[in-house]
Write a structure and sequence with these properties.
Layout (H helix, E strand, L loop, with lengths): L8 E2 L12 H10 L5 H22 L4 E3 L7 H9 L4 H6 L5 H10 L13 E3 L6 E3 L14 H12 L4 E6 L1 H6 L11 H17 L4 E5 L9 H13 L6 E5 L9 H5 L5 E5 L7 H7 L5 E7 L9 H15 L3 E5 L18 H4 L5 H17 L3 H13 L8 H8 L10 H7 L20 H11 L5 H22 L16 H4 L2 E5 L6 E4 L2 E3 L3 E8 L5 H9 L6 E5 L1 H6 L2 E2 L5 H21 L4 E5 L14 H15 L8 E6 L4 H11 L3 E4 L10 H5 L5 E4 L12 H12 L20 H23 L1
Helix pairs in contact: 1-2, 12-14, 18-19, 23-24, 24-25, 27-28
Enzyme class: transferase
EC number: 2.1.1.14
Protein name: 5-methyltetrahydropteroyltriglutamate--homocysteine methyltransferase
Length: 759
C-alpha cells in the first residue's frame, strides 16, 4: 500500500520516574540514611533517565520528554527552578546544597540536618500522586536556576535523542500554590521568572517546549481566563515552539480561549472525558500541531487499536500531517513494563499494557495510519474484544444481590449511637492511631518467606501473632486509649484486601509512585467483585484477646479500593464501587459478630476520586457517600464506626463528609498547622473528629508543646467531648524509635490538656 504523509510524530508527556525495579525509591532511602553518597544517588537518577529514554525510543517514540524526571516531585522541581523557597528553609539551611534543600522542603529533613516543618503535600488533581504545594508570599524572591533541566537536555542530546523539555505552566503553578489572598496579583512577578526560564531554554536551543496547563480542564472563571491571555501574550517565546498540554479532563469548554493564545500546538486528553476532536480541529489555527492523547495514560488496559484507527483515520487525513499521537497524560501513573509479570494469569495479562507497551501501541497505530494496513492492529486488539465477553468478568448472583438490597445505611442517628457508645468507657480526648505501625525489616522478611513457601501457614500465623503481641504491648506502654493490631500481615491497605476478592488480581512489579520514595502497587479489577472469605477477623480477634482496651478493626473503604486500583473500564465506577461496598459490608458484619466494638473504614481517596469539573462533583459524591453508608449499614448503634481521610480539601466536600455519618472522623491537619480545620468553622462537623497532630510523612518527632498547641487550635473549632487525638495517617513508613517518641509526646499532651480542662 502507498505510504501517506509521514510528518506525524509520536511523543509522550512523561514516563515513570521510579525505574523498572523501583531503583529511585531505594536510592532515596539509602541517601537519606547516609548509606550512599550524593554522587551515587544522582547517578541512579541519570541511569533511570537513560533507561527511560531507551525504552521509549526503542518502542518508536520520536520526541522524548526531558524534565519529567524528579528526585521527589515535578511541582517541587518547578519551585526550585524559580527559586521560590519558603523562608524557613532559606534561613535554616545551607542553600548552596540544592539537593538537601529539596528534601528539606519535601520531607522536613535531609542528611545535612534541619528539622523544619515540611511543605504541605496534596493530591495531583484526581490521581493518587501527591505533589508538594508551593508556598507563595506577597513578594516573590525569584532566583531562576534551571541548571538541572539544562543538564538533562544535554544528557539526552549526547545520547542522540530528540527531546522536548517539560515544564509546568505559570497559571497551573499559581493555581495549585498556597497563598493567603488573590493569587492572580502575583502573576506579573511569576511571569518575570518564567521569562527567564524561556530565555535560558532559547539559549540552549530547546526547540519544542511542552508547557503543562492541566487547570484548563477545570471550569475557570473569567479572571483566570483573562490571566491566560495576559500570561501567554506577554511571554516572549523566541525560537521556542510551545505545545500547550492539558490532561485529566476535556478542554472543549475553553477552546475559544486556547485558540486565542500564541502557541504552536495543543495536546488533547481524548480519554478522561468525552471530547469533540472534530470541533477542536475546526476551532484551532490551521498551522498548529494537534496532539491527540488517545492511549490511556492512567489505566493499564490494552487499547483497542482497530477502533482507534477507525476514529483517527479521517482526522489524520484532514490534518495533513499535523497530527501527533501520545498517551492521554504522563505515563507516571502506570507501571513500567508488563514483560516483568511472569506470574499473572495469561488471559488477564493479554488484556494489559503498562507504560512500555503503551509506547508500542502508539507505534503500531502510527504504522497503520501511515500505510493503511490494519492487519497488525486487528491482531493486537483481539484480546481487548475478548475481555468484554469473558466469563471471568460477570457474576450474575452478585448483581441480583445488589439489586435486592434493602438496608443501605445505619438505622440509628448519631445522637443515639453516641449515647450507646458510652459503654466503651473512653476518657475525654481519647488517643488512638490511624491503623498501621512500623513495617520492620523482620516483618517484611517474614511475609516474603511465607510468600516463597519457606514458612508454613501455621508458622506464619504464629510469627504474625507475635508481631501483634509486640504492637499491643508497645501501645499499652505508651498509654494509648484505643489500640490497633498494627497490620503486620498487610503489604498495602488496598492490595491486601484485593487478595481476598474474586474479580481482582495483583501484579508483582506493577509499582507506581505515590510521592517521593513511596510506591504503591494497585490491584487490577477485571471482573465482578465478591469476598472469598473473611479478611481480617482472625487477626483482630487475636489482638482483642490480648488487651482489655478496645482494638479497632481496620478496613479500607470502597471508594479508596476503587480509586487506588486499576479499574475495569466496561462498567461504571459507581457500579464497581457498590460491589466493593457490599464485600466490605460483609467483613464489617463478621468483625461485629467477633466482638469488635470499634471499626475504622478508611476513605482517604474520597476527595481525589472527584471529577476535575465542579459541575460533575455532586453526582460522584452522591454515590460515593452511598457506598460508604452501605459498607457500615449493618453496624448496630453500640459499635463505633470511624473513617479516616488525608490530603482532602474539606471545603470542597464538607457536606459529603458530614453525609458519611461516621461516628468518628480522623483527618490530616498537622502539616497545615490546623488550617484545614477552617472548613469546620463555617459549617460545624456534627460528629466526633480527630484532627491529626503528628505529621507521619516527616521523620521529625513533634514535641509535647507543639502537639498541645495544635490541640488547643482544634478546640477552637471542636468541643472537647467530640475531639480525638491521633496522628495524621498510618505509621507503616516510620521507625519504632521515632514512632514511640512521637506517640508518647502525643499521649502526654492529651493527658495534660485533660487536666487543664478538668480544672
Amino acid at each position: 500500500m502507498a505510504k501517506r504523509n509521514e510528518q506525524m510524530k509520536l511523543h509522550t508527556l512523561g514516563f515513570p520516574r521510579i525505574g523498572t525495579r523501583r531503583e529511585l525509591k531505594f536510592a532515596l532511602e539509602q541517601y537519606w540514611q547516609g548509606r550512599i553518597s550524593k554522587q551515587e544517588f544522582l547517578q541512579t537518577g541519570a541511569d533511570i533517565r537513560r533507561q527511560n529514554w531507551a525504552i521509549q525510543q526503542q518502542a518508536g517514540i520520536e520526541l522524548l520528554p526531558v524534565g519529567d524526571f524528579a528526585n521527589y516531585d515535578h511541582v517541587l522541581n518547578t519551585s526550585l527552578y524559580l527559586g521560590i523557597i519558603p523562608q524557613r528553609f532559606a534561613r535554616d539551611s545551607d542553600s548552596s546544597d540544592k539537593l538537601d534543600l529539596e528534601f528539606r522542603i519535601a520531607r522536613g529533613r535531609a542528611p545535612t540536618g534541619c528539622a523544619c516543618a515540611a511543605s504541605d503535600m496534596t493530591k495531583w488533581f484526581n490521581t493518587n500522586y501527591h505533589y508538594i504545594v508551593p508556598e507563595l508570599s506577597q513578594q516573590l524572591d525569584i532566583r531562576v536556576d534551571i541548571q538541572p533541566l539544562l543538564e538533562q537536555i544535554e544528557e539526552a542530546k549526547n545520547l542522540g535523542h530528540e527531546s522536548k523539555p517539560v515544564l509546568l505552566g505559570p497559571l497551573s503553578y499559581l493555581y495549585l500554590s498556597a497563598f493567603e489572598g488573590d493569587k492572580l496579583q502575583l502573576l506579573p512577578q511569576l511571569l518575570a521568572g518564567y521569562q527567564q526560564i524561556f530565555d535560558k531554554l532559547n539559549s540552549a536551543r530547546a526547540g519544542w517546549l511542552q508547557i503543562d496547563e492541566p487547570i484548563l480542564g477545570l471550569e475557570l472563571d473569567a479572571d483566570w481566563q483573562k490571566a491566560f491571555r495576559q500570561a501567554y501574550g506577554e511571554l516572549r517565546q523566541g525560537s521556542l515552539k510551545l505545545l500547550l498540554t492539558s490532561y485529566f479532563a476535556s478542554i472543549d469548554h475553553h477552546l475559544d480561549l486556547i485558540a486565542s493564545l500564541p502557541l504552536h500546538g495543543v495536546h488533547i486528553d481524548c480519554v478522561a472525558e468525552p471530547t469533540d476532536i472534530q470541533l477542536t480541529i475546526d476551532m484551532l489555527p490551521r498551522h498548529w500541531v494537534v496532539s491527540l492523547g488517545v492511549i490511556d495514560g492512567r489505566n493499564i488496559w490494552k487499547s483497542d487499536l482497530s477502533a482507534l484507527y477507525q476514529k483517527l483515520e479521517p482526522l489524520y487525513a484532514q490534518l495533513n500531517g499535523r497530527t501527533w499521537l501520545a498517551p492521554s497524560c504522563s505515563l507516571l501513573h502506570c507501571p513500567v513494563d508488563l514483560e516483568q509479570e511472569d506470574k499473572l494469569d495469561p488471559q488477564i495479562k493479554s488484556w494489559l499494557a503498562f507504560a512500555s507497551q503503551k509506547c508500542q501501541e502508539l507505534s503500531l497505530l502510527k504504522q497503520a495510519l501511515l500505510t493503511g494496513d490494519t492487519a497488525a492492529i486487528e491482531q493486537y486488539s483481539a484480546p481487548v474484544k475478548a475481555r468484554l465477553v469473558s466469563a471471568q468478568a460477570v457474576n450474575t448472583a452478585l448483581r441480583e444481590r445488589i439489586g435486592s438490597l434493602t438496608q443501605v445505611q445505619r438505622a440509628e442517628p448519631y445522637a443515639v449511637r453516641k449515647q450507646k457508645q458510652q459503654s466503651l468507657a473512653l476518657p475525654q480526648l481519647p488517643t488512638t492511631t490511624i491503623g498501621s505501625f512500623p513495617q520492620t525489616a523482620e516483618i517484611r522478611r517474614l511475609r516474603a518467606a511465607y510468600k516463597r513457601k519457606e514458612l508454613s501457614s501455621e508458622e506464619y500465623i504464629q510469627a504474625m501473632q507475635q508481631q501483634i503481641e509486640d504492637c499491643i504491648a508497645r501501645q499499652e506502654e505508651i498509654g494509648l486509649d484505643v489500640l490497633v493490631h498494627g497490620e503486620p500481615e498487610r503489604n498495602d491497605m488496598v492490595e491486601y484486601f484485593a487478595d481476598f476478592l474474586d474479580g481482582v488480581t495483583s501484579t508483582r512489579y506493577g509499582w507506581v509512585q505515590s510521592y517521593g520514595s513511596r510506591c504503591v502497587k494497585p490491584p487490577v479489577i477485571y471482573g465482578d467483585i465478591t469476598r472469598k472469605q473473611a479478611m481480617t477477623t482472625d487477626w483482630l480477634s487475636y489482638a482483642q484477646s490480648l488487651t482489655d482496651k478496645p482494638v479497632k478493626g481496620m478496613l479500607t473503604g470502597p471508594v479508596t479500593i476503587l480509586c487506588w486500583s486499576f479499574v475495569r473500564d466496561d462498567l461504571s465506577r459507581e457500579q464497581v464501587a457498590r460491589q466493593i461496598a457490599l464485600a466490605v459490608s460483609d467483613e464489617t458484619e463478621d468483625l461485629i459478630n467477633a466482638g469488635i466494638k470499634i471499626i475504622q473504614i478508611d476513605e482517604p481517596a474520597i476527595r481525589e476520586g472527584m471529577p476535575v469539573k465542579h459541575s460533575q462533583w455532586q453526582q460522584y459524591l452522591d454515590w460515593a457517600v452511598a457506598c460508604f453508608r452501605l459498607a457500615c449499614a449493618r453496624a448496630p448503634a453500640d459499635v463505633q464506626i470511624h473513617s479516616h481521610m488525608c490530603y482532602s480539601e474539606f471545603n470542597d466536600i464538607l457536606d459529603a463528609i458530614i453525609a458519611l455519618d461516621a461516628d468518628v472522623l480522623t483527618v490530616e491537619t498537622s502539616r497545615s498547622n490546623m488550617v484545614l480545620l477552617d472548613a469546620f468553622k463555617h459549617k460545624a462537623y456534627p460528629n466526633d473528629i480527630g484532627p491529626g497532630v503528628y505529621d507521619i510523612h516527616s521523620p521529625n518527632v513533634p514535641d509535647t508543646g507543639w502537639i498541645t498547641d495544635l490541640l488547643k487550635k482544634a478546640l477552637e473549632v471542636v468541643p472537647a467531648e467530640r475531639l480525638w487525638v491521633n496522628p495524621d495517617c498510618g505509621l507503616k513508613t516510620r521507625g519504632w524509635q521515632e514512632t514511640r517518641a512521637a506517640l508518647t509526646n502525643m499521649v502526654t499532651a492529651a493527658q495534660q490538656l485533660r487536666a487543664e480542662l478538668a480544672k
